[in-house]
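#struct-pred
JK: can someone run the complex with pyridoxal-5'-phosphate? inputs below
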Amino acid sequence: MEIMPNRMDRLYYRYQEELEQKALEILRSGWYILGKEVSLFEEEFAAYTGSKYCVGLASGLDALWIAFRLLGIGAGDEVIVQGNTYIASVMGISMNGATPVIVEPDEYYSINVEEIEKHITKKTKAVLVVHLYGMVAPMDQIVELCKKYNLRLVEDCAQSHGACYQGKMTGTFGDIGCFSFYPSKNLGAYGDGGAIVTNHEDLAQEAKVLRNYGSEKRYYNKVVGTNSRLDELQAGLLRVKLKHLDELTLERQQIAQGYEKGLNKLEFILPKVRQNTTCVWHQYVIRCERRDELMSYLKSKGIGTIIHYPIPPHLSEAYAYLGLTKGDYPITEHFADTVLSIPMYNGMTKEEQDYIIEQLQGFN
Ligand SMILES: *Cc1c(COP(=O)(O)O)cnc(C)c1O
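RT: done, structure tokens with the ligand placed:
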């Protein structure tokens, strides 16, 4: 059997009729940028997350750097972020000239709260929490800490659409929640897309100005902005998928349960879900000391896997200027050396999952 790490075509065919109808409607409308689909998606996604406002943007990275710009965070400021994340989280901080301050994660792949406190300096302006793999960070402790030190709180929810902490959705705990709708995300478009959610009316207004060349009124530019607009086609297709997001999340949770049951007696370290949170399983990440061996073994059985992520941002060439080296973040580095994401996607068949589990059981 051949199994790819992700199969985005499965969902397309599941909702083919609805998606094609919506795409045709938009193509035939003659209106492609900043129209009714974007406004409706913003309303619906704000309501879905329980936020007052949502502003559609061109990508998840834009959502991040625009969030920090809206909060006035830039050169000379420090933002604390976990070491085990996709490099876009860190770029979202540094693109405005702010300095990313990296800290170690906890056993749930979330930022370690005690480590945050140790890294606060006079220059610290914000904490960026990443709900990596669809797992949720301990938001009550983080909110409390940010209050205590008067720090801004931004959430990177690119992998956590619909994930909750004590019933409240990720993205709504701090000042701004940042989302990506890259095709492989839990709520994925058919191209690039992103958004911020916030309860601050002024920030939402300002984001709408920034995304459109700093212009509120056509050809009148208030600030030097950017072009970061979610387009009508993506917004319309996202509206179709948003209606199904809860059932898609449930399907991922059932797949995760299947893995838990099939793999819990083996030598792998399985993901644990933090108490009082719902995990939306963007990835199903196991750890194995012989990770590279496991990866090629699975490949030989036709099973594709991915490492999220093999090079932590602090060891990436792009961040050489931070002056960090191997050994500075042992937990982050250990994760990078041992994590493996096994196939996790909506539309996985029982036969596929049984085959994956069977092959993992045969690894020795
Ligand atoms: C995907 C992702 C991003 C970036 O989103 P893009 O839409 O690809 O720009 C940022 N942070 C995390 C954690 C991601 O997984």
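RT: quick notes.
DSSP finds 13 helices and 14 strands in the chain.
Residues 59-61, 85-86, 88-89, 130, 156, 158-159, 180, 182, 192, 194 surround pyridoxal-5'-phosphate (CB under 6 Å).
JK: thanks, will look after standup
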